[in-house]
Amino acid sequence: MDASSSTRPHMVVAVDGPSGSGKSSISKKSAEQMGLSFLDTGAMYRALTWFCLKNELDHEDQIQPKLIKEYFDLWISIDPTVEKVVVNNEDITREIREDLVTTNVSKYAAMSKVREFLVKKQRELVELAGQRIVVEGRDIGSVVLPNADFKIYITASDEARAKRRAVQTNSDEKLVLESQKIRDSLDTNRSVSPLIIPENAVVLDNSSLDFDQSVDRFIQIVSA
Ligand code: DC
Description:
Elements: H1 3-7, E1 11-16, H2 23-34, E2 37-40, H3 41-54, H4 65-71, E3 74-76, E4 85-87, E5 90-91, H5 99-109, H6 112-128, E6 132-137, H7 140-144, E7 150-155, H8 158-169, H9 173-189, E8 202-205, H10 211-222
Helix pairs in contact: 2-10, 3-5, 3-6, 8-9
Bound molecules: 2'-deoxycytidine-5'-monophosphate.
């Protein structure tokens, strides 16, 4: 475990960045190595999307915070070594990564009522982790945790991100690049909580770094 993270009473690390930048796996591994909890907030948006699709809720007026609070019981692992998402006692860890959810999630993530509900839950989970946690998403340093101890913006060139995703999913690089551009544009141009580089964030561009080098750089940043 890193010395600075073990001696600080609280260690909240906010990580943001575009899809395909490797931010999820880099943050998770770094959290594990530093003995911190880890929260993947994208998985929470995916879980709510899965729930809305299942229950045919597709209009923002159908998604009242009171209603979600009552019927959407979300449990998500904050252990960096355990990936698990449960909704209403159903394990949906695998389902939230499927195409149906992936193609619909940007629409739900752009709804202010959805964000209001999930941001509150994210802050509660940070407390539950005793404020010793790496939280990863798109609006973490800017909206969810503006007072985080460290803010990191993980990114890579469009081509590097598309290439990695194409290899992971065994798909055509050009097609991946196209759909990536659409998702980047939805995430950065939406009116509520768009993806931005938060003030005071350190930019970790890993276009020419491998996974282990990226984790080393991450840990170096939060050990400063
Ligand atoms: O990181 P991901 O691909 O699993 O995220 C899924 C979607 O949720 C993506 O469209 C971005 C959105 N998201 C968001 O708007 N805010 C967050 N804090 C995390 C994810």
